[in-house]
Specification:
Layout lengths: L1 H16 L15 E2 L6 E2 L2 H12 L5 E2 L6 E2 L2 H11 L6 E4 L6 E3 L2
Antiparallel strand pairs: 1-2, 3-4, 3-5, 5-6
Bound molecules: zinc ion (2 copies).
Amino acid sequence: MSLIFYSNKVEDSVWFQRRPRRVSQSDPSAPKYPCSNCQSVFSRKHNLQYHLKFECGQMPRFNCPYCTYRTRHSSNVRAHVRKIHPGLQVYVVDIAKCCKTEFIS
Ligand SMILES: [Zn+2]
Ligand SMILES: [Zn+2]
């Protein structure tokens, strides 16, 4: 009897931890650090700073011109195009430059 109750409890705690955007109601007085660029909310300032630095503020800016592949390094896109889209022109879409394309032969 008590075994079943125990396993339910474990699943609950995992469920909460897998949803970083939903701040748990366990501590409503905890300070919240919402990201100003997206919907994410963090309970620790450090997590917000990490998010801004590596996730939100550092969006992968180099896009494959032929599919949705995106990466932080233009060389990755060139390697990707050669491998996934053989025969097509190899160039990189730099979304940080307002959709201008960067031609690399
Ligand atoms: Zn964000
Ligand atoms: Zn592609």
